[in-house]
């Protein structure tokens, strides 16, 4: 970043904030703090980032000593700060709260989990990409060997399914990502409450790139994402980003209507050949025909509901990245 005016040739290091949502993470917080501290100190020494950089822990209504620990860390370490949500709101909300708070102090923000599953050494490369002019840098898991077979198959299947539904999702990217201040400023205009952050950032646009890292095992403690939460999250991802499931109803209706023509021919042939009881022809044709018609009708209503759903999200319709008119001055 080159500043104009008197600082013409002064290369300013960006202020980095690392946002880390924490829910009942007392077992990992100490080690996470140790590693992040070393990382930030190193980057500051290398003049990669400003000495004003910080780690911001977001306490998501933890029931254990997490918040007390964050307060303690903040007191002893100048590179650490924290915010605490009024109650548990879930990973995505906690992360959003952290990002929106951090953007007021930082030039660039990296979000990551508290459990050290995301390799913190990828931060160096993310900063490098940022300096090359990328506004979003997605951390992507190169391998998933450390995940259980079940988690790997379900997660990878999910990303493929999202793609099939037409959602622009970065494959195997969780919430380990770098975002510049201007991306976060624009992001604050996305007012939806059903959050699926990893699907929303691609909507913002700007130049983005990917860095690969190996996903490790959780340092300590248990996953805060049990199967039920994971399924909910996946379902949220699908229903927040695609109205295709509604369209399927319509398609299904047409298929059934088509089948009903076959049934009609079949029933009439049976009637003509005298192979049927009284009223059967009428009933079987009616059931299939009406069924198809109803399905189409529901599908059409669904289309409108889908439109309304998209309207209520009030997502920004465009974001201007560069305005040459402004640059002239
Ligand atoms: N988390 C949170 N609120 C919740 C659940 C999880 O802030 O309600 C945080 C958690 O502390 C961690 C991150 O979200 O930093 C990811 O959770 P976890 O590592 O348990 O998920 P997994 O890696 O197993 O998918
Ligand atoms: Mg984890």
Give a written overview of the molecule:
There is one protein chain. The protein is α/β, with parallel strands linked by helices. The protein has two domains: 252 residues, Spore Coat Polysaccharide Biosynthesis Protein SpsA, Chain A, CATH 3.90.550; 70 residues. It is 50% helix and 13% strand. It has eleven helices and seven strands. The protein has a seven-stranded mixed beta sheet, sandwiched between helices. Helix 1 packs parallel to helix 2 and helix 9 packs antiparallel against helix 10. The protein is elongated. It starts with 15 loop residues before the first strand and ends with a helix. The structure holds uridine-5'-diphosphate and magnesium ion.
* CATH top level assignment of the largest domain: Alpha Beta
The helix content, as a percent range, equals 40-55%
Strand content: 5-15%
Q: Looking at the chains present, what oligomeric state does this protein adopt?
A: single chain
CATH superfamily of the largest domain: Spore Coat Polysaccharide Biosynthesis Protein SpsA, Chain A
Keywords:
2 domains; binds magnesium ion; alpha/beta; 7-stranded mixed beta sheet; disordered N terminus; binds uridine-5'-diphosphate; Spore Coat Polysaccharide Biosynthesis Protein SpsA, Chain A; 7 strands; 329 residues
Question: How are the secondary structure elements laid out?
Answer:
Blueprint (H helix, E strand, L loop, with lengths): L15 E7 L3 H20 L8 E6 L6 H11 L3 E5 L6 H12 L5 E4 L10 H10 L4 E6 L7 H16 L8 E8 H7 L9 H8 L3 E6 L13 H15 L2 H29 L7 H34 L10 H4 L2
Parallel strand pairs: 1-2, 1-4, 2-3, 5-7
Antiparallel strand pairs: 4-6, 5-6
The structure holds uridine-5'-diphosphate (UDP) and magnesium ion.
Magnesium ion (MG) binds next to loops.
